[in-house]
Amino acid sequence: EKASMDLVVVLVLSLSFLLLLSLWKQSHGRRRLPPGPTPFPILGNILQLDVKDISTSLTNLSKVYGPVFTVYLGMEPTVVMHGYEAVKEALVDLGEEFSGRTNFPVTAKLNQASGVIFSNGKRWKEMRRFSLMTLRNFGMGKRSIEERVQEEARCLVEELRKTSASPCDPTFILACAPSNVICSVIFQNRFDYRDPKFLNLMGKFNENFKILNSPWLQFCNIFPILMDYLPGSHNKVIKNFAEIRGYILEKIKEHQESLDINNPRDFIDCFLIKMEQENNNEQSEFTTESLIGTITDLFVAGTETTSTTLRYGLLLLLKHPEVTAKVQEEIERVIGRHRSPCMQDRSRMPYTDATVHEIQRYIDLIPNNVPRATTCNIKFRNYLIPKGTSIIASLTSVLYDDKEFSNPQTFDPGHFLDDRGNFKKSDYFMPFSAGKRMCVGEGLARMELFLFLTAILQKFTLKSLVDPRDVDITPVFKGFGHVPPLYQLSFIPV
């Protein structure tokens, strides 16, 4: 009896303490931070935001509080940058100060602070520099990255042929292709699309991406204590992760046994050589742990994003047959029917280039960027943002700016063409974010999108099962990423 009374007293005291702490932190922190809606104790502004569509919630708040404002996700303040000017000022002009990464309790649990995406400081700088250099075609042995993507484009076309022009859901095939490019870059070889090991690996990444996108996991990031005591899908993520790590470790061991320092075959070889060079450096960031973390990051960031963009892209092309026809006319004129598309073709194909850009702008894949953090105390537009504060840069607000893009709610490749039909660059094109933390795989992703889409449209006519006017292009998920609805189409060989 007494024990349970004591427990109640302890609970009440702890809760009261939490409430007071939360109120104190909020009032103390809010003095110099940008304005924003008044937060509730402990919960912050979570009830004022639509968890299923944070991006639109932030746009609505910016109408009230301006381009720079503060929201509380739980007890921690997050400063939001909305609109091109604020986003550019933070991510580009003050790149160094805004180049930190928030500590995500979920990824910390997975030990992912060892890779590129969630690391900070010296480790992040070194992993990033190394990954960029290696992905830029240097030191990858005899085959350039472009050749690897072209090979995959041919395999993708073959897989699509096997559907024999009957209606199919392209999700799976379009996920295999980018994933395989990453496999080729990291492990040297691509897999057959029916290889059980490959399918198992893809399944795990896919399941993790879905779970990490769920509202439950957003809550776990805000209230990490939930993960330690409650059952839930976060445990599935941890289990999947352990299996993925096991597979990667096995591959690293195989590489170590057959390594030829003068002839690196892939990313793992390049990394192992670097580890060898830094053997005597106690402080070296090039450890097996970092290698596993970096490989996982390349997989996670390089598979889902590109495959979702391709899948959404084909859906938009079904909706807009007039755009598809123009792209196919340009492919026919510049490349013809028989030669494989290559990156040199892009400069002679302004309409196709504009279409790929417009797909990325329109789908606005990662609407709120991956949250950043300040690396020091910083004065920003007369506000004081303390070191370690989370920063959200709304990419939606840049990609949908109506001063830059005449009709942002409409899918129109003309947004990236001038009066004479030449390709027109835009500083507002930021699907890969901007500044010091912009996507490491940007070059690879843009190469894949161009080569895969042209290869598909060179060899097939896309046939919708419904009238183009009835094709639904509204995203089904609007959490961390915009995911298109499921759909079917037929690939009719040209």
UniProtKB/TrEMBL annotation:
It comes from Oryctolagus cuniculus (Rabbit). One of its GO terms (cellular component) is endoplasmic reticulum membrane. PROSITE patterns: CYTOCHROME_P450 (PS00086). Pfam families: p450. InterPro entries: Cyt_P450, Cyt_P450_CS, Cyt_P450_E_grp-I, Cyt_P450_sf, Cytochrome_P450_fam2. The lineage of its organism: Eukaryota, Metazoa, Chordata, Craniata, Vertebrata. It is found in: Endoplasmic reticulum membrane; Microsome membrane. This is unspecific monooxygenase. It comes from the Eukaryota. Its EC number is 1.14.14.1. It is a peripheral membrane protein. Keywords: Endoplasmic reticulum, Heme, Iron, Membrane, Metal-binding, Microsome, Monooxygenase, Oxidoreductase, Signal. It is an enzyme of class 1 (oxidoreductase). It catalyses: an organic molecule + reduced [NADPH--hemoprotein reductase] + O2 = an alcohol + oxidized [NADPH--hemoprotein reductase] + H2O + H(+). One of its GO terms (molecular function) is heme binding. GO terms for biological process: organic acid metabolic process; xenobiotic metabolic process. Belongs to the cytochrome P450 family.
